Amino acid sequence: MQLTSVLIRILRTTQLTPLGPVAAVRTAMQLIFCWYLLSTFPSGAISADEPMRVGMIGLDTSHAPAFAKLINQNSDVASPLATMRVVAAYPGGSPDLPSSRDRVVGFTDDLRKMGIQIVDSIEQLLTKVDAVLLESVDGRKHLEQAIPVFRAGKPMFIDKPLAANLTDALAIDRLAKHYQSRWFSSSSLRFSPSIIRYRGAAYQGAIHGADAWGPCALDATHEDLFWYGIHGVETLYTAMGTGCQQLVRVSTPSTDVVVGTWEGGRIGSFRGIRSGASGYGLAVFGQKSIELDAKYEGYGPLVEEIARFFSGGPHPVSNQETLEMMTFMQAAQVSKQRGVQPVTLSEVFEQHLAAAEEIVARIVDQP
Asked: For 188-218, what is each residue's pLDDT tens digit?
């Protein structure tokens, strides 16, 4: 049954039937809940017996067919994935980025073969969907592609990296606030069970420090760590949480090492690998033990979190934490530029916030 139909039925009942105090309270709660759902999914297309219609922007990454298969080929009715289905997609693509340009046609064909409708614009996509997966591999595109989604008021997952630099990341957040739209961003590593466990109650206050490592290829179109180092930085933050105050970065052609100091004197580090043996990992230093068994465990846990978020659940990662990670990586860029000098995150944040607010002012003034 459509949510709008439910709301109309409740309204008719209140007009035809005298309500006692208990029934009046119950009806008021029903109306409030329906209003919340309708404001979250303004298309009114969510129903109890039909999955949410999800659209995809950016078919130039392997995440596009992988996420679509996980969602559309799910057969477990009890899974969060059963609440949604990818129905339409806009290919996008960046002609000046080989990893986008050379893959977008093939991945678009993959989605077309799954029966997913391919559309010519984001505006056309938004008429067909209730929520959006922004998958474009090029973080430079994310701000521009997010604007119409925010204006339409549809919940959105923005795949890594949130943006190609901190200014755009902050502009995305400020723009979402202006349009009162919900978004979150995350690397899939965060939700691997052996990594996300460090957010559990048993570890609160018990982690003294952590060292994360992972592949760290660079691309000239993005600030260094934004392109691929984000995976390892997200792993580090999953263990350490927010509160990094300053950092210093040592960089060579083959390796990056970023050491951050958190509130209370805790130390967390990220090692970015560009030569020799590579892989993802995390060492967590606790009160009574050192744990080394964290590992990457696939896309599934992240996509399930996306489904819960699209269904009205809380942010799986707070926007505040995501923006601190972006600030961490931008500060690492500044430390490198200054010749291995310590940099405070607050300094970098304030510098980029001013630029982001100018961008947002220009966007909201546009018709």
From this structure: 999 999 999 999 999 999 999 999 999 999 9
Phi first, then psi: give them for residue 219, nearest 5 degrees: -140, 135
Amino acid 29: pLDDT? 59
* Vertex 303: Cα angle to 136 and 33 (nearest 5): 105
Distances (CA, A) of 338 to 138, 220, 229: 27, 19, 20
**pLDDT over 50 at 17, yes or no:** no
pTM of the predicted model over 0.90: no
In tens, the pLDDT along 176-196 reads 999 999 999 999 999 999 999
**Bigger pLDDT: 168 vs 16:** 168
Q: Tell me the C-alpha distance between 353 and 359, whole Å.
A: 10
Q: Are strands 244-251 and 343-344 parallel, antiparallel or unpaired?
A: antiparallel
Cα–Cα dist 220/273, whole Å: 17
Give SS3 for 134.
strand
Give residue 231's pLDDT: 98
Residue 163 and residue 278: Cα distance in Å, rounded?
Answer: 25
Strands (E), 200-318: 207-215, 244-251, 255-262, 267-273, 281-286, 290-291
Compute the distance between CA of residue 285 and CA of residue 265 in angstroms, rounded to an integer: 14
E strand or H helix that includes residue 76 = none
User: Which residues of the chain form beta strands (DSSP E)?
Assistant: 52-57, 84-90, 117-118, 131-134, 156-159, 183-186, 207-215, 244-251, 255-262, 267-273, 281-286, 290-291, 343-344
Q: Which amino acid is at 52?
A: M
Query: How big is the chain by its Cα radius of gyration, in Å?
Result: 22
Beta bridge partners of 272: 214, 256
Average pLDDT, rounded, for the chain: 91
Half-sphere exposure of 302 (CA within 13 A, CB side): 24
Closest CA to 65 of 113, 131, 102, 10: 113
Q: What is the pairing mode between strands 84-90 and 117-118?
A: parallel
